[in-house]
Design a protein that fits this description.
By secondary structure, this protein is α+β, with helices and mostly antiparallel strands. The protein is built from four helices and four strands, in the order E-H-E-E-H-E-H-H. The protein has a single domain, classed as Transposase IS200-like (Alpha-Beta Plaits, 2-Layer Sandwich), CATH 3.30.70.
Length: 126
């Protein structure tokens, strides 16, 4: 069978339900680790995750065996289940319906990476 090459990089953004600021410092890195684990289970390659208390940005290589919507549905479902049932937060955690997804060219990869990395600084100035 011929080998396939995948260079589909996506920038995904989704928010907490009602844009509630639920992702605090104690949850943030654990939640991001959970999302990375879910990406890897789907054979996607994570590049960077970062965000704010009410939304996150994910940059990753999409596995072409899965649809984008299935990948994101799994990320959102598994991560909210994890927060509510494994992490056992003191509040009910939900993601808002919908998401933004943008393809990223090789030429713009560094720009998008830096935009995600510096989210907190970006939001302080905007």
């Amino acid at each position: 069978m011929p080998q396939s090459y995948n260079n589909v990089v996506l920038h995904v953004v989704f928010s907490t339900k009602y844009r509630e600021p639920l992702i605090d410092d104690t949850l943030e890195q654990k939640l991001y680790a959970q999302i990375i684990e879910q990406l890897e289970k789907q054979k996607c390659i994570p590049i960077i995750i970062n965000g704010m208390p009410d939304h996150i940005h994910i940059l990753y290589y999409q596995n072409l065996q899965n649809s984008i919507s299935d990948t994101i549905k799994q990320l959102k479902g598994a991560s909210s289940f994890w927060v509510n049932n494994i992490y056992k937060s003191s509040f009910h955690f939900q993601w808002q319906r919908g998401y933004g997804v943008f393809s990223v060219s090789k030429l713009n990869l560094d720009t998008v990476y830096n935009y995600i990395m510096w989210q907190k600084r970006h939001h302080k100035t905007k």
